[in-house]
Amino acid sequence: MAPNFIFPQNLNSLEEEDPDYTRLTVQNPSAISSLRSSELEEFVKGVSFDLSDKELFCIEEQEIFDRVYSLVKGFASLTPGCKLNLVESLRSNLSVLLPNVDSLSRLRGSVSSRNGNDSDEQDETSEVCDGSSTLDRVASHRNAFKIYTFFLIHIVLIEESSSSPINNNTKAAASSRKKHLVNSWNWESQRSRILNLIANSLEINLSLLFGSSNPDENYLSFIAKNAFLMFENAALLKDSDTKDALCRVIGTCATKYHYIAQSCASILHLIHKYDFVVIHLADAVAAAEKRYADGSVATSLIREIGRTNPKAYVKDTVGAENIGRFLVELAERLPKLISTNIGLLIPHFGGESYKMRNALVGVLGKLVVKAFNDVEGEVNSKSIRLRTKQAMLEILLERCRDVSAYTRSRVLQVWAELCEEHSVSIGLWNEVAAVAAGRLEDKSSMVRKSALNLLIMMLQHNPFGPQLRTASFEATLEQYKKKLNELGPKSPSRYSSEGVSNGLPSDNDISNMDGEVGDEETEGNSKEEDSLTDSCLPQAADGMVQMDSSVPSFGNLEQTRTLVASLEAGLRFSMCLSATMPTLVQLMASSSATDVENAILLLMRCRQFQIDGSEACLCKMLPLVFSQDKSICEAVENAFITIYIRKNPVETAKNLLDLSINSNIGDLASLEFILGALVSKGDITASMLSALWDLFCFNVSGTTAEQSRGALSVLCMVAKSSPSVLSSHLQDIVDIGFGRWAKVEPLLARTACTALQRLSEEDKEKLLSSNGSRVFGILEGLITGFILPENIWYAAADRAIATIYTIHPTPETIAADLVKRFLSSVFNCHGDGKLQNDMDNGSSSVLTTVQVTKLSRYLFVVSQVAMNQLVYIESCVRKIRKEKAKKEKIVANDLKANANTSDVQKDNGINAELGLAASEDAMLDGLVERAEKEIISGGNTGKNLIGHSGSFLSKLCRNFSLMQKFPELQTSAMLALCRFMIIDADFCESNLQLLFTVVENAPSETVRSNCTIALGDLAVRFPNLLEPWTENMYARLRDPSVCVRKSAVLVLSHLILNDMMKV
């Protein structure tokens, strides 16, 4: 009989001598490395033949044991064929050995029965022999079992260590070797078969081999130690079969054989050290509990984690994060077991490690969802579970005010998960909503993001219905309160009308012990609305809150009372969301892109559920399209498409024109930018444009003049990116835009002027050839006539003058006629000299009401003409320079084609030395300066028409007593003065003192605001003139008017950011 096999510390320890011969060791190892390949193959075949031909426990024979040891030690140097033969021989022998263990029990039973017959003395000798031989056979089986296990596990360790690259230098070699092995004999498959065999060996009745309920410590220590060692290999765990086998090994050792203390220590060590083992170890612990119905391993781990000093996790941040993930994964798999032991972990809420607090919050979330779903059991135990759940929810609410932003963010994410899983009761719904709304103003952006996502999730899964308008809830609630009063006149006062206005019923009034609404009828009304998908539109079927005028009876007082409580909860939720609208507007102006994006998403969800104020707030997102952050721009465009672009072209057209009608100047600029982007992407289709033209031309019944103007406005915005849009309806623009409908909708004429400005060059020529005189006559009449109201005329005249300068071939001629006509209409009763004398004497009797209006309009027109003349000169210069650059490029290309390169370079050098190009540019700059100066200062012959108006305007603005009597005239006069100053430097310098006097002392905040904005333009155009007045410009920040201060902030910030002014 061979000596007992004892697992050594390592493979090489088997070669150590044992003088007492108490354990099996290697006596004559073979030098595998010295054998030739043919000799090695013969050697392996011989070992395989002996293992298959002899008995299963022949492995304990010294000769075979030594040869197998030698092959395992040199396993890395074996050929794939030799490896396969050796592995198959060892594995097949162990797999055959396992069923034979059961035969040992029958053999022992027969020996025991025979030993019980004491009367038969003649068989005593044979019985002793049989008993000793049986014990020897069991010992041989045990030895063989341990030897096969030892060698197979070491083969796995050797092969894995040789397959994995040790360093960067051996990476290529190791990779090629591993690829070769895989192609030859598929090591991954062999590895999983070996480890599954080891796992199966642990699941048989090993007490028959080891003589006790648990195997010896030496065997379990070897198996568990190497299993945990293999867990450190991330590549090995990627194989699902191998991972499952290792999990079975660890779970069986720890649970079945009570190897708990050592296993728990190893598990915690791995979790602290490697993050990739967390999920797999959680699988192992959960599988062990499921297989053996014994959660001792999980309980021991929780107890050990709870026993750890919370301060230890402050320094070990990686370990704290891994432990936290492990707890969450364990709660996902074993919710009931964790719920009974959660008290061991609660002390970590008081620790300083926010990662542990985050993990515990996640654990509580998993437990709330999964640990309390069963309804079976005694009433007492169910009551305990409900109290436990309520305590967990209270902890989650408390953690929303955690000192760490990471924990506050995490707990809000957990609440969102609970809402998604329908684990938040109606009684707790509004409390969670109030907490989330409060966290919108958190100082941390990650908390604000989580709060926004929570509110989005709460809206999506709200139990109150597909539309949450406050008015609908109040009306329905009033009806059911009347019904409640009819059913029970002496009902408690908490359901009186004061409940809505002064204090809505508390969550405890709405919910029972579990926090759920108790009656079936309420569940029937709200169950179908528990989860509303993204496709749920406000026009969906009416929900619980949309009731007929006749209130249905629910049959008893309690059911109606519960419904009233549910409606009150829905009203509170709607009012809570409505109250967040100002905060959401502030978040859209946040510097954090996540704040902006999620605020837009929440507003879109609020609009879907018809929350009060959401539509107006969404319109304020349009200016964000100019953000430099690409993600914000994309978010705005996507939201715009979702809200306003529909599959029905007519519906889309109406959405767009309504938006243009109700938008201010800033929103219109944003809308124009968005439409330009959508046109370039092809999102604005031809059918949508056709629908807009139909609305503009009144081809759709019921179209109003305002809608026609809105449709044309949208078409003008599209025309900025695609001018050809307007070419098919030129006549309609003139006929409708300036026809009788312009009297009904005064702004229609202004929009038509914008459309004429957006025409392409071909369309402009077409318009001039067909309707040129008519169009300009209309524009002149629009400017000089009194058809439009006073408040509309200025905007229309501004656009009309700009249109003349855009499409007329010689706009200065028609502009001069306009100024002369206005001048004669203003001064037709008095000569210019008399009026000038009256102005000098401070007399205002000459200015009647009609004359003040005409004079205000004249000053506006003359200043607007001067400004457009300046712009016209600059555009002409740009065209000249563009044509010049184009000709120079053509000439240069011709010279390169017809002459040598050296000659071209020589000519260019001569031209550069002579300064021909520079002289042409200087001549052009001189002409530009002269043309600009002639606008106001005039030429050699003296001042021109606008120049004389400038002198008059300057004296008019200095007559402060007159200006105070006519504030409308002062507004127009100061605006004209500022425009003249922007055009001419000399005029600006001579009137700067006047401008600052007016901006400081003018009683009208409109005048002060206009002058403040004009100062910004002057600082850009003439920085040297404005530099001495810097302190006066900063003084506008102390203006008593909020409007003026706001304008000053905008102007100064613009100048400072563009380095035009010192701070």
TrEMBL record:
Keywords, comma-separated and alphabetical: Cell cycle, Cell division, Chromosome, DNA condensation, Mitosis, Nucleus
InterPro entries in UniProt: ARM-like (IPR011989), ARM-type_fold (IPR016024), CND1/NCAPD3 (IPR026971), Cnd1_C (IPR032682), Condensin_cplx_su1 (IPR007673), Condensin_cplx_su1_N (IPR024324)
Domain Condensin complex subunit 1 N-terminal, residue spans: 83-261
Compartment(s) where it occurs, according to its Swiss-Prot or TrEMBL record: Chromosome; Nucleus
This protein's GO CC annotations: condensed chromosome, centromeric region; condensin complex; nucleus
A Pfam family it matches: Cnd1
GO molecular function: histone binding
Gene3D superfamilies: Leucine-rich Repeat Variant (1.25.10.10)
Residue spans of biased composition, Acidic residues class: 118-127
Stretch list, region Disordered: 109-130, 484-534
Extent of Polar residues compositional bias: 493-511
Swiss-Prot/TrEMBL GO biological process terms: cell division; meiotic chromosome condensation; mitotic chromosome condensation
Domain Condensin complex subunit 1 C-terminal: 1006-1063
Family: Belongs to the CND1 (condensin subunit 1) family.
Protein name: Condensin complex subunit 1
